[in-house]
């Protein structure tokens, strides 16, 4: 099997636009959660989310602010009507990742050997809801020709391929909150199996829309207790957790075959060494109570990586600020056994909120940056842990430490689990 | 310049983000103004809304230029 490394990173999250800006916020323990500004939340039990700070005022953004997002720097108003926000976010993060990798395929062969695998948990929920109203009130002739291509999940991969002329495998993942992790794991396999030399991989989400918030509220999954103190709302493992906080954005990595990256002198952040997948076969929204699905995904990733669990230095948990947090921690304790005190564990969702289909991708990037800078990101708001653990729960601020191997967990509705392991390239 | 032409030009300029100087009667939406087939569908929908008329699909297929649109709309409005 061919080795696969990470050579480019791109991030757009509630902490802002750009990898370095994001990472600074993560290490400092900054919350990206605030009041929902993009629609009137009157009548909603949850009125907070992690919106992307944007020049139009969304998420408390303003022109000139550091790390503020500007749609018009990504696409013209004419092109924007063809895409829902999740696609704009995917394009923005892919632009950054490809520029960071310094990869601009020019020959036909280079284009055909560069593919895209970017997914989304839900896709164009906003346009689907809005168009349903137009259909009901004005009839079928008023439905926009851009409705379907703006809402389809795989148009993330389609739009990125068109923009950059990438003619290799063009695929897209839909596994709810495990999407981003599955996309990176599956894309790495395409390179390992020689279907491509370079893959643009990750996830994007823009579900902070009325029907998205109402839908997750109906599932009893969203945080409702911290509408007045949004920065305190996402608190994985804390006894006062109240459900997850919705976030939006995208995380994209450029994956590359090791020798291909070396030959062109690319900066190598880390190697994708392990990937494990499993199903709970238990419940549509709740994880199996014994955490066995997550355990088996992690176990498979460790086996694939050809490492011992004692090699793992940092785990970025799925940790959504729900009852599932301790089930996951229990599965990690079981996996790590005696090694548990040596493993740093945190959930960066305490700062970004839960980006659903983008979560696995942005958290993979935080793992990669943890390896680059030898700093474990923290969990914020973990003021009063619900129970004790032998694991090293990194709190409040990033913790400098040796990190050669980091694992990212992502679990989704339907009982779908993915773990991806990254390793420092010596 | 007829009122219809001016209103059609405004819609085309807005929807296609086109250079106003290029939006002349003989300009083809696809060949001269950067539209694709989906843009054409959207332009026809916008003409229907602006002039409160219905443009059947078979007629819409023949509206390829600014002038085509003006001619069709004027004939329709004249009844």
Number of domains of chain A: 2
Going by CATH, what is the homologous superfamily of the largest domain in chain A?
A: Thiolase/Chalcone synthase
| Largest interface, C-beta within 8 A | A-B, 10 and 10 residues
CATH superfamily of chain B: ACP-like
Tell me the radius of gyration of chain A. Answer: 20 Å
Our count of helices of chain A gives 14
Helix content of chain A: 25-40%
Q: Which fold name is given in CATH as the topology of chain B?
A: Non-ribosomal Peptide Synthetase Peptidyl Carrier Protein, Chain A
Mean pLDDT of chain A: 97
CA distance, first residue to last residue of chain B = 21 Å
The ordered H/E elements of chain A are: EEHEEHHHEHHHEHEHEHEHEHEHHEEEEE
Low-confidence stretches of chain A: none
- SS elements, strand count of chain B: 0
Distance between the termini of chain A: 19 Å
Averaging pLDDT over every residue of chain B, what do you get? 95
Weakly predicted, low-confidence segments of chain B? none
Largest sheet features of chain A:
12 strands, mixed
Q: If classified by CATH, what would the architecture of the largest domain in chain A be? A: 3-Layer(aba) Sandwich
In terms of quaternary structure, the protein is heterodimer
Give the CATH class of chain B: Mainly Alpha
Description:
- The complex is a heterodimer of chains A (426) and B (79).
- With 426 residues, chain A is α/β, with parallel strands linked by helices.
- Chain A folds into two domains: 4-264, Thiolase/Chalcone synthase (Peroxisomal Thiolase, Chain A, domain 1), CATH 3.40.47.10; 272-424, Peroxisomal Thiolase, Chain A, domain 1 (3-Layer(aba) Sandwich).
- In chain A, 33% of the residues lie in helices and 19% in strands.
- Chain A has helices at 19-28, 77-80, 85-101, 108-112, 125-138, 147-151, 155-164, 179-192, 210-218, 258-263, 292-305, 324-336, 349-352, 359-373, and strands spanning 4-13, 16-17, 34-35, 48-49, 114-119, 170-171, 198-205, 249-257, 270-279, 314-316, 344-346, 375-376, 392-393, 399-400, 405-412, 416-423.
- In chain A, the strands form three sheets. In chain A, strands 1, 2, 5, 6, 7, 8, 9, 10, 11, 13, 15 and 16 form a twelve-stranded mixed β-sheet that branches. A two-stranded antiparallel sheet of chain A has the order 3-4.
- In chain A, a hairpin with a 3-residue loop joins β15 (405-412) and β16.
- In chain A, α8 crosses α14.
- The longest helix of chain A has 17 residues, at 85-101.
- The two termini of chain A are 19 Å apart.
- The model of chain A has no long low-confidence stretch (mean pLDDT 97).
- By secondary structure, chain B is mainly α.
- Chain B contains five helices and no strands.
- Chain B has helices spanning 3-16, 29-33, 37-51, 57-60, 66-78.
- In chain B, α1 crosses α3 and α1 crosses α5 (66-78).
- Chain B is globular and about 30 Å long.
- The two termini of chain B are 21 Å apart.
- The chains are: A alpha/beta (426), B mainly alpha (79).
- Chains A and B meet through loops of A and α3 of B.
- Chain A: This is 3-oxoacyl-[acyl-carrier-protein] synthase 2.
- Chain A: It is an enzyme of class 2 (transferase).
- Chain A: Residues 1-424 form the Ketosynthase family 3 (KS3) domain.
- Chain A: GO terms for molecular function: 3-oxoacyl-[acyl-carrier-protein] synthase activity.
């Amino acid at each position: 099997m061919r080795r696969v490394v990470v050579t480019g990173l791109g991030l757009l999250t509630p902490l802002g636009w750009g990898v370095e800006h994001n990472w600074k916020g993560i290490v400092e323990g900054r919350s990206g959660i605030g009041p929902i500004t993009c629609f009137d939340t009157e009548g909603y039990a949850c009125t907070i989310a992690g919106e992307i700070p944007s020049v139009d005022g969304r998420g408390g953004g303003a022109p000139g602010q550091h790390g503020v997002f500007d749609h018009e720097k990504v696409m013209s108003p004419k092109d924007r009507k063809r895409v829902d926000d999740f696609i704009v976010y995917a394009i923005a993060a892919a632009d950054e990742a490809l520029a960071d990798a310094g990869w601009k395929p020019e020959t036909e062969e280079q284009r055909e050997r560069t593919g895209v695998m970017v997914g989304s948990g839900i896709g164009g929920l906003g346009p689907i809801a809005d168009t349903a109203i137009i259909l009901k009130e004005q009839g079928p002739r008023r439905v926009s020709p851009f409705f379907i291509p703006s809402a389809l999940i795989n148009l993330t991969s389609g739009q990125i391929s068109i923009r950059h002329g990438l003619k290799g495998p063009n695929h897209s993942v839909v596994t709810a909150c495990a999407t981003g992790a599955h996309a990176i794991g599956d894309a790495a396999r395409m390179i390992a199996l020689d279907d491509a030399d370079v893959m643009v991989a990750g996830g994007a989400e823009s579900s902070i829309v009325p029907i998205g918030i109402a839908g997750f509220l109906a599932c009893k999954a969203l945080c409702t207790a911290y509408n007045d103190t949004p920065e305190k709302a996402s608190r994985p493992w804390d006894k006062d957790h109240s459900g997850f906080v919705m976030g939006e954005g995208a995380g994209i990595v450029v994956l590359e075959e090791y020798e291909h990256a070396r030959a062109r002198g690319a900066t190598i952040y880390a190697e994708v060494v392990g990937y494990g997948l499993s199903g709970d076969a238990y419940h549509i929204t709740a994880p199996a109570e014994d955490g066995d699905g997550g355990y088996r995904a992690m176990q498979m990733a460790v086996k694939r990586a050809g490492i011992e669990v004692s090699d793992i230095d940092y785990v970025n948990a799925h940790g959504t600020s729900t009852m599932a947090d301790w089930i996951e921690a229990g599965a990690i304790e079981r996996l790590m056994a005696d090694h548990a005190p040596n493993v740093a564990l945190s959930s960066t969702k305490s700062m970004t909120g839960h980006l659903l289909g983008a979560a696995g991708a942005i958290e993979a990037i935080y793992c990669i940056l943890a390896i680059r800078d030898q700093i474990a990101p923290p969990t914020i708001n973990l003021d009063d842990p619900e129970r004790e653990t032998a694991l090293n729960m990194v709190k409040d601020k990033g913790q400098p430490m040796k990190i050669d191997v980091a694992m990212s967990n992502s679990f989704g509705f339907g009982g779908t689990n993915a773990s991806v392991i990254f390793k420092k390239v010596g | 310049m007829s009122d219809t032409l001016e209103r059609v030009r405004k819609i085309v300029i807005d929807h296609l983000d086109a250079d106003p100087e290029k939006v002349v009667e003989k300009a083809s939406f696809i060949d001269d103004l950067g539209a694709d087939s989906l843009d054409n569908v959207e332009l026809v929908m916008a003409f229907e809304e602006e002039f409160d008329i219905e443009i059947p699909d078979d007629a819409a297929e023949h509206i390829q230029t600014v002038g085509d649109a003006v001619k069709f709309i004027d004939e329709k409005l004249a009844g």
